[in-house]
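To fix ideas, we now present one chain and its tokenised fold:
***
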Amino acid sequence: MASVYAINKGINASVEFKGLKAQYIVYLAAGALALLVLFVIGYMCQIPYYILIPLMILIGTGLYIYVMRLSNKYGEHGLMKAGGYKQLPIVIKSRHRNQFWSLNEDKKSLDTKN
């Protein structure tokens, strides 16, 4: 029996799957892939199953909760906006007035042309 999952997408709406919005689906998939690789590395290092499997379940649950919190807190584009906001400078320092004089001259040239 094949499972059928509904992916809700209306007109001009972002993709939503099981409560995850837009890019958070990709984040969760990448995290699940990283968990798989981590499991394989643990298996090759001969870590016992009774330690490895609960550890992967615990890390996977934490990953799922973290991604769901990000999705609910920031929404579709909020995480990118928050990252962009952190890159804005707090203060713009200028030690010379020449930059502002050139702006004033450009404005005067535009006024004379019109």
In short: The CA atoms of residues 80 and 87 lie 11 Å apart. The chain has a mean pLDDT of 81.
